[in-house]
Amino acid sequence: MTGILRRATTAAGVTSGWVHVLPGRSDGAQGAMAQWTRADGTGEQGTTAGPSLADVLDELSGELPPGSVLVVDSFHSLTMASANSLIVWSHAARLRGVHVLIGFHPALDQAGVAPLLNVPSTTTWIDVRPLREEELRADLAAGLPWAAPGLLDVAVDACAGSSLLLRALRRALAGEESVDANALSRAHASALESGTLRLVADQGPDALTLALLSALVRPVHSARAAAEQLGLPGATAARLEVLLTECGLQPNTRESAGVVHSVLARRAPMDVRRVAAGHAHSLLSATAGKGQLFRLRATVGDSLTGMLPLAEAAYAEAWAEGDPDTAAAVATTMLTRSADPAELAWAKSAAMRCWAGIDWNAFANHVAWLDEPAVAPLVADLDLCDWLRLEAHTVAREVFGISGAGELRQATRLANRALYGYAAEPDVKNLDQAISGQGILSVSAPLASRLALAWFGLADYEAAHRWASVAAFTASESELADCAMGHLVGAQALIRLGHFDQAEQQAQAGAELFAAFGASNLEAFARLSAIHAAVEARRPVTALPDPIANPHPGLALYRTYLAARCDLLAGRPDQAVRQLFECGRALTKCGVVNPSLVNWRPHLASIFRAKGQADFGQHVETDLVAAWREWAAIEPAAAARRSTVLGARAAEVFTDDEQPVSAPTLDMLSPAELRVVDLVVKGMSNRDAAKTLFLSKRTVDTHLGNVYRKLSLCSREDLVELMKVLAPQRGECALSVFG
Description:
Blueprint (H helix, E strand, L loop, with lengths): L1 H11 L3 E6 L10 E6 L7 E6 L2 H9 L7 E4 L7 H16 L3 E4 L30 H9 L7 H11 L3 H11 L7 H14 L2 H6 L2 H13 L5 H8 L3 H13 L7 H14 L2 H15 L5 H11 L7 H13 L3 H14 L3 H18 L1 H6 L40 H15 L4 H12 L8 H13 L3 H14 L5 H18 L2 H18 L2 H17 L16 H17 L3 H18 L9 H11 L3 H21 L1 H6 L29 H11 L4 H8 L3 H15 L4 H10 L14
Helix pairs in contact: 2-3, 4-5, 6-7, 7-12, 9-10, 9-12, 9-13, 10-11, 13-14, 14-15, 15-16, 16-17, 19-20, 19-21, 21-22, 21-23, 22-23, 23-24, 23-25, 24-25, 25-26, 26-27, 27-28, 28-29, 31-32, 31-33, 32-33
């Protein structure tokens, strides 16, 4: 409102003045400052300051001619003496034709100066109303990517009708790709700290104590009951209750209440926390649950050593209410506030139990706790999902751990072997046939997800996609991790099969599920898979997402490969070369023999051919053939399925008897036939190709017939598809052998 008035008076050319009061001193005095536009028409400003408001107003009397405007925007901040001085001065100023505009907020009136506003006979009130719920909802819904409709209700409640909170919340959410519960919680806390919390703190310790006490006892007791417990006078209590509501510190949703409590507990001084916690204990002692009593002790900030029984009860209460986040908070609070080794061991085990279900990344970062002698017995019965071990890469030597029994354990072992490139196909095929005989829909999601991964490592992408679909669509509520992995493996298989739109959808579904578990590595891998599908479809990719902290080596490798592919699409082959070589070093370091997982060598060879560096290209191709020979000796059927990656060099790996299909090469064609093929593949008709090459149409027809005969093709469409596979032999950087 002040800004609007300033702009309006400036635009109208009206002489105006502004008074800003300083906080009152302990001796009752209150300084002030003023500025005004000079009446000489120059537009220059004058300023003054004085030890009292009366002195400043006296100087303004000679600077404000009739018709000018004086704005005092914080009447509620005045002491009683300053307010009296202003009222008396304003009477005289009005007689001289000066318009006095006074800003007043009842909830901030500490000195009780409101009655003085009734003294002037010509007072006009402008009441700035709070924003209505529908206005808040429309504003927040516009332009913000809400992950779920229910979050918008929480955001509306957090704003509490305050335009100040609304602006602060929108600023904090700006740039978020998706507004989920965590992003909204962070933005809400930031909005409170940068927006309205300062107003409450400026009202003194009573206001801050009431705010924290009210947060501690809600929803059992109201702010009015909290004020009575503090012994605040009725008028003060009513004023502060209004202020807390306007500042968004009396929320109606559980999510907003949690943010308000954490912000107040963090920002309030220790003496305020102790007073609020003591009064909260008095109010809640008869009705509070163990969780509330534990939070009261934690709010005070003292050591929690010796409080294990209360912590255990609060932890159990949170679990019983289906609130693992609160249970994890109890455990982590004990970790930071207890010095007893036995209590710390309990806190570690309790935290790990929570994280295993809600925050896989936190579990992985603290997985070494499971080896501590005091912790291990407490988590002996912890049933860990194998996919969780992918996050714990700091201690896991293999792709994921081997657990379970019978077929599940066998499938896990075979998936490991297939991915790394060791002999597995006969056993995988036998297991596949055995469990398929039981009925495919009777197979559990954990078993299906492992079979899918095994077939993927063996380059049978049809089988991998089939089992991935079983895992994704038959998983129960307790098997959502296997459901997510089914989506991810399915996406990777679909990329190899050339179904990019479906692959992108599957990858996004997996990413959303992994995000719900807090599995940051797997979520990032799924999101990169969606980008991989776009890259293979030759769609533009603006940039890869920022790397996560402490990534799994496999994730870092995959990101490097996709960065190289994006550089190729953007015409930066030199950068792509460095990153493709890095992929090779990373695979060797991981001990991966399987050359079908990442096509780094074929792309590298294509780059060197395109740049005319035949010696480098030959060296990379020789290395590719050697790697394929090694794998083909271990897994001949899998290598044969993926042999199109080798192009013309496939004959060096497979004998004629071993070749799964004939392998046509461009060496079969003459230069003249190759020129015709190049134009036909680009979509030209025979007649247009003849014009381009200055040949007769009959000659082009003859060349094309010879091409069909030599390559055993039947149609133009077959030729186009084959040339995509053989593109590397022509020195092109793009491959059709996807992945």
